[in-house]
Amino acid sequence: MKKIMMITLPAALLILGLTGYFALNNSWGSVVIAEKHSEKKDSVQTLPGLKKVDAKISSCCSEKMEEGSAGYSSNSVYQLSSVWKNELGQKLSLGDLKGHKVVLSMIFASCTYACPLIVNDMRKIEKSVADKSDVRFVLVSIDPERDTPVTLLEYSKRQGLELSRWELLTGSKSDIRSLAAVLGFKYQRDSKGDYTHSNLINVLNKEGEVVLQHEGLNKDISDIVGKLKSMN
Amino acid sequence: MKVIYVVFALLITASNVMTAKDNKDQFSHQKSSMVLVKGGRYIPFWKDDKSLVPVKVKPFYMDAFPVTNAEFLKFVKANPAWQRSKVKRIFAGSTYLRHWKDDLELGPGATPNSPVTNVSWFAAKAYAEWKGKRLPTVAEWEFVALPGAKSSLRDKMLNQKILEWYLTPKPQRAGTVGVGKPDRFGIYDMHGLVFEWVDDFNGIIAGGLGGDGNESGLFCGSGVVNSSDPANYAAFLRFAFRNGLKADYALYDLGFRCAKDAN
Q: CB of B241 within 8 A of CB of B195?
């Protein structure tokens, strides 16, 4: 009897321990797709005329997460004071989006399968809320090496994105990792330079708090549209 | 019943009794010491394709010890935004530093020379940046933690020891850093005290790709097919554990150490 307990006890403890951790975590249902892309080099171009945005330009970036939290709620994504560049090469921080309802996804421009579907979903959302001028659409690149502002600008043209409503952002590896961490977005670069990543559309309220996360591809987007229409 | 207690006691103290010798010497120079890991090739435990190409790990420095309560206290003193009562909720859950007496006092629940736990990924990352360091990557951490390339009897015994530690309920107060033996790199406590955050804990480790983009093959049978070493159950548990984490989690048996690029 004692011997049996000696064996079963550690096993039971293991199960208990794991169950505890996994109960804490509901992210196992999130969505993954492996991407393939073709190598391409970006030609360096001069940037066209700057887009007018209501962005206050943040100076710089050390002591990131300690600073810049003023005015945002404790749960706001805008607590991240990281500085990004948009498709026109303009610097902005996420907090500059405050006051807008934001639909945000993390993608990479050379992605040929999942990301175009995500962007397509977001365009559908855009059409459904065409009359709501306070909604902004944000694509954050997870591929800082290839997705320069110029690449992102080309991408926006290819995708037919209206730049008065869309921002395409590129930032440092570390800041991308932090934003992904805040959103619970998973991604990894594989040995061939491709990215495997979650498929996730996030809706932020005007304070920058995540109010809805939509996982998967080509799924019914009425949840997001409904949220954008109903919230203040 | 007594036998069970004995087993318990053995398991719990297993890591601590390994060696208590040289303890004093180690403490005299350990506090900020980093160890140069020359790097090499590492076959990831997990791959999203079946090619199992070894990944090159570049030379890097790794903290010889996990960050302690005392060290983390210095950090929050210098960076009030990371004190328990001031931290932004999005960066650390409500259990953040719960074992400390208050914002600036460790109290009886937190031994100065024990690894700091109940810290979120954001807090660990901020500490590392404050030190001019960074968190190690999964590849770096595993490169150091895994036994040597060839599976010798010694490695099997090490794996067994690690597994035993995973099977053991962790004490609410972690033991003292630097008490056990260093590993082949001269690094302490990769196993036996606390689990540790890594920079890319939120990397994807799934194998199966469902038609609708779902993580179908995560940790059930199909996942094992993509493992480079299905027998390495200890590594499997670590990957499963990391996959379950969210960046604001502050868990009582989860701490961290820092790394730095060499050169």
A: yes
CA distance A51 to chain B (A): 31
**Are A22 and B247 an interchain contact pair (Cβ–Cβ within 8 Å)?**
no
DSSP, residue by residue, B52-63: -PPEEE--EEEE
Domain assignments of chain B as residue spans, ordered by start: 2-261
Q: Does A61 touch chain B (CB under 8 A)?
A: no
Query: How is domain B2-261 classified at the CATH fold level?
Result: paralog of FGE (formylglycine-generating enzyme) (3.90.1580)
The residue among A73, A83, A24, A33 whose CA lies nearest residue A210 is A73
Interface test with B, best of A9, A28, A65, A79 (most B CBs within 10 A): A65
Backbone dihedral region for residue B52 (phi beyond 0: left; psi -120 to 50: alpha; all else: beta): left
Q: Give chain A positions within 8 Å (CB) of B247.
A: 178, 181-182, 184
What chain A holds in terms of domains, given with CATH numbers, is 32-230 (3.40.30.10)
Chain A to chain B Cβ contacts (< 8 Å): 137
ipTM comes to 0.77
A144-190 pLDDT tens trace: 999 999 999 999 999 999 999 999 999 999 999 999 999 999 998 87
Higher confidence at residue B10 or residue A110? A110
Residue with tokens 């421009």: A109
Q: Which residues 6+ apart lie within 8 Å of B221 measured at CB?
A: none
